[in-house]
Amino acid sequence: MSTALVTGSRGQDGTYLAAHLGRLGYRTVGIDRDGPVDLRDREAVRTLLGKVQPREVYHLAAHHHSSQDSVGDDVDLFRRSHDIHALATVNLLEGISRSCPAARLFFAGSCQLFGTPSAAVQDESTPMQPDGIYGITKLAGVNLCRYYRRQRGVYAAVGLLFNHESPLRGPNFVSKKIAAGVAAIHQGRQAGLVLGDLDAEIDWGFAGDYVAAMHEVLQLPEPEDFVISTGERHSVRDFVAQAFSLVGLEWQRYVTVDPSMLRARPHATLHGNPAKLTRMTGWRPATTFPDLIRLMVNAELEKHAHG
Ligand code: NDP
Hints:
The chain is of the alpha/beta class. It folds into 2 domains: about 5-165 and about 205-230, Rossmann fold; about 175-200 and about 235-270 and about 290-305, UDP-galactose 4-epimerase, domain 1 (Alpha-Beta Complex). The chain contains 9 helices and 12 strands. Helix 2 runs parallel beside helix 3 and helix 5 (about 175-185) packs across helix 9. The longest helix is centred in the N-terminal third of the chain and has 26 residues, at about 75-100. The protein is globular, with a radius of gyration of 20 Å. The structure holds NADPH dihydro-nicotinamide-adenine-dinucleotide phosphate. NADPH dihydro-nicotinamide-adenine-dinucleotide phosphate binds near residues 10, 11, 39, 61 and 84.
């Protein structure tokens, strides 16, 4: 039986990935904040890799933050982000090279690496110029993967992941906020929904499809970088309209825009081209945009269906 080591295994993607790998016959060992090792501890990481001898390592753990989180200052945020996106990555890469050199690593990069992109549709050749600390520290992780790939012969693939959602998404993400809001309004638990920029366009996929892509990437003979996206983009307004229509409500009666939630500078439109991934692995997202919305709204309705 093959073993996969998954960091951040209790997060959204970790949960879907463990289920996917389980169906493929893998045993999954998870590393989370509470153990079995601290990813900042190089010796502990190396010892664990030697003991587990994974076939595949998925480094999904991440330090997310949003304007709603109370963080200290940028230095504090950088330290915490760097610990998990860069230091943990180099510990895993070094540990693989010393203790289980045949293991293959998947690093979860992000479309945030593109910052305000120079190309309308981004692919693997789009320059990476992150403009936030999350992206800056993820870029260090990408560069470490490329370095270990080139200099040390470690199999380290990078997924440039665009937004992907599911019922497990955290409450601060707009998809989850809309799905939960629609269900609460329909069930009489909430009167309305306050949102920011309805015109923002997002390349939204389903987490269950994206974890399948991560696994596909690691089956290729050579480690490379891959955009993982749907190649489609939809506005927040589209998401809202479809979500409300599922419960037979007119969204205009319930949604208000809070101007204080609009950014001075609108978000750059991140829209990925997954052609390389499709060409090399045959992967395509199986879940459509309406399917994704239905899945999320139904999960929220179900959560409160019995009181
Ligand atoms: P989640 O936030 O759901 O999962 C990340 C997990 O990492 C959480 O369980 C988190 O735990 C855990 N974690 C954080 N710090 C540590 C640590 N020091 N040691 C061990 N575990 C830790 O994210 P997703 O599943 O959505 O994303 C998976 C990966 O994909 C991430 O790397 C993310 O940056 C990347 N990505 C995701 C996108 C998306 O749209 N979902 C888009 C682009 C990239 P806790 O909850 O306790 O913090």
